[in-house]
Amino acid sequence: MSRVELRVNGVATSREVDDRTLLVELLRGELGLTGTHVGCDTSQCGACTVKLDGAAVKSCTVLAAQASGGEVLTVEGLSTPQQLGEVPAAFVACHGLQCGFCTPGMMMAIDYYLDTDGSLDDERIHRALEGNICRCTGYVNIIEAVKHAARARAEAGKPVGRQHG
Amino acid sequence: MDSRLVGQPRPRAEDQRLVRGQGRYTDDVNLPGQAYGAFVRSTHAHAIIRGIDIEAAAQAPGVIAVLRGQDYLDDGLRGMDHIPNPADAIAFKERAFQHSLTGSIFNQRHLPLVVDRVRHVGEPVVLVVARSMREARDACEMVQIDYEPLPAVVDAVQAMEDGAPQLWDGAPRNLCFQARVGDEAAVREAFARAHCVVRREFRNSRVVNCQMEPRSALGSFDASSGEYLLISGSQGVTRQQMCIADALGISPAKLRVVSPDVGGGFGPRSCVNPDQLAVLWAARRVGQPVKWTSDRNEAFLSDYQGRDQVIRAAIAFDAQGRILGIDNEIIGNIGAHTVSYVPLANGSRIMTTVYHVPAATALLSAVLTNTPPTGPYRGAGRPEATHVMERMLDIAADEMGMDRIELRRRNLIQPAQMPYRSPMGLTYDSGSFAANMERALVVSQWSEAEQRKRDARARGKLLGTGLANYVESPVGAPRERIEITIGTDGSVDFVVGTQSTGQGHETSFVQVLADELGVPFEAVTMRTGDSRFVKVGGGSHSDRSMRLVGHLLVQAGERLRSTALSAAASMWGLQVQDLCYEDGRVRDQAGQHVAGLGEIAAHIGREGMPGNPEERRFFAEAEFNGRIAAHPTGTAVCELEIDPETGDVEIVRYTSIDDVGRPINPLIVEGQVHGGLAQGIGQAFFEDYHVDPESGQIFSGSYMDYGVARAGAIPRRFDVELTEDRTHGNALGVKGGGESGITPATAAIFNALADALSGITREELPMPATPAAIWSAIQRAQGVQP
User: Fold this and answer.
1) How far, in Å, CA of B522 to CA of B532, rounded?
2) What is the DSSP letter of B416?
3) Residue at a domain's end among B609, B625, B641
4) Cα B292 from chain centroid?
């Protein structure tokens, strides 16, 4: 068993877990944060993407114990009950989701892209989304949402592309 | 009524929860005291089970039960009847296939666990139930199954041959059925007087559904009431309820099925999977709820798959390039269980697509093989038929030395021919086929493509353009029902038997009903996905949802307005003709009285419905059982560049002209086109469920081996235009938009590939046309053995 201490969406938590518990299992199971999804078992689909200490990681490929001491941001932390964050708001405005299953991971990968790059160049966006599969949207509107969110962040005076994770 | 909301590209209501991570998919749901299930799946494509040793697994930590197929039979239960033979496209009360040249139509019940003989890799053999998922999976490793391997056959054409391994008694030559459709004699006569006959064979590859949500099922049983509960994503709860209740030998009323948010459907999730039945049975056995969630590897082995047809096509032309007749043979790979004959039914009905074909026939074969079962996958036979028709026209134009667009112009069904009855019996009520094609040529700048080809050549690239016309058929489950109740607070609640798997029904249906009643969008709530209140309904597939539900919403809306007027008349002691309904209110001409829907509901609560005082709810229902004419149609143009040094392809431009009838929410409709195209791109270039022909082992069991389109695969430029030649077949003029992107996609892409390579080779590329396949074809044409 391992003791795991994390800050998740700003809240400190501590759990005793089986050594082989994955970060995503801790989030979904122990913490009840079911917004983060599991879509594959080979780190290919990106549905489980969260931010760990500012970097986008696939939480199905990180042991909970490895993440101990870290700061985790999940989809639940992107918005407040009153207001959607820039990326979720852009997904709604651009119809960037259909079934919504890949969406949380997709949005976390994009949030990281906006932190570290934020360019509106299609090829750079494609590369940023290479690790996230969507079967519904054909990506067209997701790419629109990336650009929409980048502009919204810039307009809100928040940093785009300055933080290097 | 007025259209304040219908036609608006309104962002979706459901998104508010989904982008917050508050969606509720099956695996997000837990029941108190639940145990976890894990399956031991067959490692052989075909083998006799000599024995199953469960001793060690049963002793493993946390294990509650280790269940075998024999245990299921010992409980007196039977397998599921998938009713693979669908309702006919025209005579909807009959099955699509009535006769088989083999004498009978084969249908085998599908057990939740294999008893004595496995027939594909991944078939479930043992279910381990344990306290935790990890303990269940660990114990699966301890189950010993003694297999006696048998020869396997995975290819449908080979499976029909003499001496091929046989899957099921009752299906000689592995044929579920073989049917001749159309007018064979007329076709023979047409071919006899043909100027030119073109023949080709096409292999439409097998694809995996790959919806992003791995399937999951949570079953429970209440011993005191004898009621089962299944929580599991699907494309409609009613079919799941009927099928599973039949297998368990219970009344459907004793089984509640709930499909919460569903992470993608695409066709196969209309059907019931063995694991959904298994968890319910197991829950009863162990006396606690049992939850199972597929991992992705399991999904590749056990989700129902799509396509996998061989089509041998022949078209006869006269000297002017007019089609005289079509003679196709369609061989469908059904897989190891009889889940669905839908693709064969759809594909043969629609095979003449948008062209005037005087005579047509097809020989259809449904063939069992040692592969996972196939089912309807987005388009379900129509993309396969469109691919063949459009490739054949390009090939014929090439052989006859004609322009490929001109050849189409000579054969397209003209508006003056509407309503048009196809030789396969479909009646097209509307569709501007020629205008759609001409529009696509303009938008795609087709006439300047030669210049772009020269420019590309200067850059060392081979540029090709391809066009495909398509039309779809209005099939699917014929029956649908809605129920609408208006509360005393003016809230509108409606229940419907379709199931959104991403199509945004909570938005588009509400747009329709809010307009019908003249109330704000926010006043209306849609409920679906729970058989406790959904009593009738066909689910979502085949473009049926808005086509049927829109029609019913208009009918029910009329009834509610009429009820409101009658109730208000009685409330105020006035005549109905003195009142009018406007903006969700009834008022009298004199301006003395006004009442909102909530006040009217309160009046009905006290006095009862006009003419029916026993009914105290302000309520309307509408039900339909039949076929509504609606043929979504359009044209796609693909422009791509091949790098001849590597075989790599980039789609530089894609144009999609789609007549979905009246678009209720253009944002959603265009999203459907985008998504369909991405699946078409996937099948055209990457997706290949590769099975070893000898062993039946699967080489593409994960996203590392099976390619789905990623963001970089979408066209550099993508123009979607919605045109509208409104159908009169339903009240809203809706045709449907769910399959418009995918239906012409592989056809347009393969026509573009052939065009790009036309200076080098005329070899028909395999599907998927991977860079290796393209590069090899180029090498062969240049006399190099790749």
Assistant:
1) 25
2) G
3) B625
4) 24
Separation in Å, CA of A159 to nearest CA in chain B: 22
Contact B19 A79 (CB under 8 A): yes
Q: What is the CATH number of the domain that holds A133?
A: 1.10.150.120
Of B262, B504, B675, the CB nearest to A138: B675
* pLDDT, tens digit, 9 for 90 and up, residues B316-353: 999 999 999 999 999 999 999 999 999 999 999 999 99
For residues A49 and A24, state if they share a domain.
yes
From A19, A48, A77, the end of a domain falls on: A77
- The Cα B480–Cα B588 span in angstroms is 36
Which of A42, A98, A102, A144 should one mutate to test binding to chain B, selecting the residue with the greatest count of B CBs within 10 A? A98
Q: Give the residue-averaged pLDDT of B259-268.
A: 97
Contact call for A138 and B709, based on CB within 8 A = yes
DSSP state of B609: B
Q: pTM, whole model, 2 decimals? A: 0.97
- Cβ-defined contact of B261 to A99 (cutoff 8 Å): yes
- What number is the ipTM of this complex? 0.97
pLDDT tens for each residue of A75-107: 999 999 999 999 999 999 999 999 999 999 999
Smallest CA–CA distance, residue A60 to chain B, in Å, is 12
Residue of A nearest to B677 (CA): A138
Interface test with chain A among B8, B14, B15, B291, by most A beta carbons within 10 Å: B15
Chains A and B form CB pairs within 8 A to the count of 178
DSSP three-state, residue B350: coil
Residue B24 lies in a domain: no
**Total structural domains in chain A?**
2
- Does residue B565 carry a pLDDT above 90? yes
Chain A touched by B703 (CB under 8 Å): yes
Chain A residues with CB-CB distance to B676 below 8 A? 138
Calculate Rg over the CA atoms of chain A: 15
Q: Kindly state the tokens that stand for B454.
A: 């020269």
Based on the domain organization, do A64 and A97 belong to the same domain? no
- Four-point Cα dihedral B250, B252, B253, B259, nearest 10: 130
